[in-house]
């Protein structure tokens, strides 16, 4: 059983997790006048005790507990629900940068893409964690197998939100196929068009043009 605290440290609900393979895997307190999943972040009451340059957001209780246990106390979780605008506003109060460290599976990657856009609306700097081993799927497993130092290095090497979005497109399209490369670069241009910072946009245009051997004017 996991007591769920609000950011002030008050217990507002509970979450239960099975220790075997039975279903459902998680059972949470029902939402009520005090407990709203989309308005709170698990672990924020602890994380906010220190001045934070960045907050790591993970998917669940176990990831948060594993990171805090290893001494990484700037980790919070979105209470098993998709990140909400209210949670993004809450994050903005405590740190200028958010590192998304969701599971590396398909569902986690889809949730990461949604979270990037929600956090970007709050003008937060967004980075995405890329674990350097494929045999683990989440921070909990990674910490237990490879330890704090390796995980901290992964956090330092986190990708920018733009890099992550482009890497996801790379995995879906065959860039050696002419028509698919045109489609790929058109979608990349769409990602760059959404950047609000002109300097960041110019730098990304240069990087994309150089990496994919296309003129920067074409990307512009």
What does this 3D model show about the protein?
By secondary structure, the protein is an alpha/beta fold. The protein contains 10 helices and 8 strands. It has helices at residues 44-47, 61-69, 85-92, 106-121, 139-146, 148-156, 161-172, 178-193, 198-211, 216-219, and strands at residues 2-5, 11-17, 26-28, 54-58, 75-77, 97-100, 125-128, 159-160. Helix 2 (61-69) packs parallel to helix 5, helix 5 (139-146) packs across helix 6 (148-156) and helix 8 (178-193) packs antiparallel against helix 9 (198-211). The longest helix is centred in the middle third of the chain and has 16 residues, at 106-121. The protein is globular, with a radius of gyration of 19 Å. It starts with a strand and ends with a helix.
Q: What profile does the largest beta sheet have?
A: 5 strands, mixed
Strand segment tally: 8
Weakly predicted, low-confidence segments: none
Which class best fits the helix and strand makeup?
A: alpha/beta
Strand content: 5-15%
Share of helix, binned:
40-55%
CA-to-CA gap between the ends?
53 Å
Count of separate DSSP helical elements: 10
The SSE string, one letter per element, is EEEHEHEHEHEHHEHHHH
Overall 3D shape = globular
Overall mean confidence score, pLDDT = 92
Query: Radius of gyration over alpha carbons?
Result: 19 Å
Strand order of the largest sheet: 5-4-6-7-8
Topology:
Layout: E1 2-5, E2 11-17, E3 26-28, H1 44-47, E4 54-58, H2 61-69, E5 75-77, H3 85-92, E6 97-100, H4 106-121, E7 125-128, H5 139-146, H6 148-156, E8 159-160, H7 161-172, H8 178-193, H9 198-211, H10 216-219
Parallel strand pairs: 4-5, 4-6, 6-7
Antiparallel strand pairs: 1-2, 2-3, 7-8
Helix pairs in contact: 2-5, 5-6, 7-8, 8-9
């Amino acid at each position: 059983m996991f007591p769920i605290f609000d950011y002030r440290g008050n217990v507002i609900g509970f979450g239960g997790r099975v220790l075997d393979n039975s279903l459902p895997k998680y059972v949470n307190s029902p939402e009520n006048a005090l407990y709203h999943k989309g308005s709170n972040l698990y672990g924020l009451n602890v994380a906010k005790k220190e001045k934070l340059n960045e907050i790591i957001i993970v998917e669940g209780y176990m990831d948060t507990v594993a990171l805090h246990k290893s001494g990484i106390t700037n980790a919070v979780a979105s209470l098993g629900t998709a990140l909400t605008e209210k949670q993004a506003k809450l994050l903005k109060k405590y740190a200028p940068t958010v590192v998304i460290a969701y599971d590396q599976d398909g569902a986690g990657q889809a949730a990461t893409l949604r979270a990037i856009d929600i956090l970007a609306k709050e003008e937060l700097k967004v980075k995405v964690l890329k674990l350097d081993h494929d045999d683990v799927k989440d921070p909990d497993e990674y910490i237990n197998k490879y330890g704090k130092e390796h995980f901290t290095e992964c956090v330092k090497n986190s990708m920018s939100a733009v890099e992550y979005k482009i890497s996801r497109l790379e995995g879906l399209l065959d860039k050696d196929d002419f028509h698919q490369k045109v489609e790929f670069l058109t979608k990349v241009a769409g990602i760059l068009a959404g950047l609000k910072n002109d300097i960041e946009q110019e730098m990304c245009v240069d990087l994309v043009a150089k990496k994919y051997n296309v003129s920067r004017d074409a990307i512009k």
